[in-house]
Every structure is written in structure tokens, then in C-alpha cells.
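Q: Trace C-alpha cell order:
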Amino acid sequence: MFDQDKWQEIFAALKNNKIRTFLTAFGVFWGIFMLIIMLGAGNGLSNAVFDGMKDFATNSVFMWTQPTSEPHAGFPRGRTFNFRNDDINALKNNIPEIEVIAPRLQARGGTSSTDNVVRGLKTGSFTINGDYPEWNLIDPVRINKGRFLNNFDIKQYRKVAVIGEMVYEILFEEDEDPLGEYIRINGVYFQVIGVFSPLNSNVNFGGDKAQSIYIPLTTLQRTYNYGDVIGWLAITAKDDIPASVVDQKAKDLLKRRHRVAPHDKQAISGVNLEDEFMKITGLFFGIDMLVWIVGIGTLLAGVIGISNIMLIVVKERTKEIGIQRALGATPLKIISQVLTESVFLTTIAGYFGLVLAVFLLELVNTALQANGGVNQGFLNPGVDFNVAVIALVILILAGALAGFMPAKRAVKIKPIDALRDE
């Protein structure tokens, strides 16, 4: 604690240099302001990205077939092939690290401009996905009405459909109950058993989920003469098993089953979502580090300014310091006085920068929420309490650092030389 006289001395010293003090303090203010703003903006971007992936199984891999790039086992280069139903059991039985397998097949024309779904006088062009129930464990959706596909739908080749919310809006009247109603998909009638809406917006496989229709994979294969063809496979790894392990083992097994050259990297393509997730995490970690470096660098520039102004203050108060030393003031008291002024100036300037930055971030967050809270590129910008504490510690250390050199110079002033100073 400092007595009233000490605070009056500090204010008097700062008042005598108010223009230089203001400009110098502004450097500290701007440094902490930009640090918090950039950290908050980075958090807003990362929150939006990770919120869009929070319900997706990030330990999953997706794979599909492409023309071969190497001849093998008597087959020429450029041969095409497809995954088959038997591949599902082969993967389950031979790769114990697999947790879930979800095959998918899309009906041809599902993404074309031709209307492929009809209900009465209403028509629309939608993506038709043939799926297993397990697909909802990897890329889940929110069931608004009815239910999702189940194993009985798969085994009994049921002509049932789960439709996206946009499909419902286009084919049905407002407030109309779609459950039990029939829609015609590529000339075949299917009964609607559920309506869903997407849970995540940043990951879409096979088109916009809101404009998609899920039907049993086996039904799609039989009804539209696909035989036992599978379009692609989605596979998740068990806990504590890297998705890359499952990815490599699955590709090796599928290459052997379909007589593809072991080193053919083109024949089975895919996406390892765990790798992509780690890349995104690394990207935002790098952004955070860059923000801290830039912010602290800007703050350091302000600290240097504080140090310079304190050197001027010490120079102008040389005689005063000499008198204090002559009257018995200890070096520690002189150091304490200079450091107190430096820390006070730095903390006040930084505090206002911190408060203004947090206030602006809260304004942006409030505006986003008032707009419905839906923004795919920016979500909940702000900084947490720990970051604020770190910023406060940085301010205090910066203030002490700024006053160290001036305090050291003040202590070196000899009383007799100080009293002669003009």
C-alpha cells in the first residue's frame, strides 16, 4: 500500500509531462487492445470451425474407388472397379481396430438439374443417399419428426425415406404432417418415416444434407438395379486407435480383394478426417502464436516508450532525487518510487485497452446473437478469464521492465551532483 503523498507525487510527475505521457501510454493501450482483439477474433474463427465439426466423428476415414494407375494381376492400367457388399464383412472380420462401418451409395441423377422427386404437383431435385443406420453415428443429423433408418429397413428392403428439412418445405405444406405420406423417387414410391435437419454445417459428404433423402442402401441397390455395388465407405476407429492405422489396413485389404497393385495410390482414394482435424487444430494454434507474437511485440514498443518517458522524468527530477538521498532516502525507496510510477502508468493504460477490447468483442457477440446466432464464419468471439489474467500479468511485468532502467539510473545519482544540477 502507498500513502496519499506518494500517489500525489506520481500524479504530479505524470501531469508535468502529460503530452508525452499520453502518447507513450497510448502505445501500451494499443498493444494490449490489439492483442485482445486479435485473440478474440481468432477464437471466433476457431469456434465457428470446431462448432461445425463437434458432432462429426473426427476419428473417421472415407474412401472410394478410382481407375487404377498401375497394371496388376493381368488387369490393365485404368481399370475401374467398385466396392461390394461383401467388403463390409471382410473389413469387420479382419480389422479389429474398426469401430463402425457405414457404406453409402448415391442414386444417379440425384444432383442433376432434373427433378427426381415428386409428390402430387410438387417436384424437386434432391440428393438420394442409400445408407445404413450406422451412417448416423458418423455424420449425425437431428431427427425433427419420426425416426432414422434401422436394421429392419436394411434387411427387409423397405421402401422408406428420411427427408431433409428443405425437402419437407418444398414437397409439403406448412404444418403438414409428412409421416406416413408417400413421395415418388425416380418413379418409385417411398413412405416418409422421418424428417431431419443437419447438426453440423462445416462437413458435408455427398451434398447439402438439408436437401438430401436417406433410403435403405439395400433398397436402393435392388430397386434401381445397382446389384451389390457400394459407392463409398465411412469407417471410424476405436478409441485410442489412430484413424491412419485403420485407413491403411482397410486400403491394403480392399486392394487385395479387388486385385489392385499394393503401391497403387490412386485406385482407392479418400479423406482421413482425423488428419484434417489435426491440420485445422495446428493452423489455429499457429494463428494464436502469431497473434501473441504480434501483440506482445506491439506492447513491447509501448513499454519502450514508457521506459523513455521515465528516463526523462528521472532526468527532470534529478535535484529532487538528490534532496531525497541527502535527507536519508534509501536506494530501495528511490527504486520503489520510479517503479511505482512506471507500473502505474503501464497498468492504467493497459487496463483501459483491455476493457475496451473486451467491450467491443462483447458488442460483436451480442450482435451475432441478435442476428439469430447463426454465422458459419464467426462464432462467440472473446477471450476467457485465464487469458485476461495472463494479459494483466504481462502488464505488470511490462511496467516493472519499463521502470527498471530509469530506476537504476536514479539510484546512481549522487546527492552532491544532484544538488548542483540545473
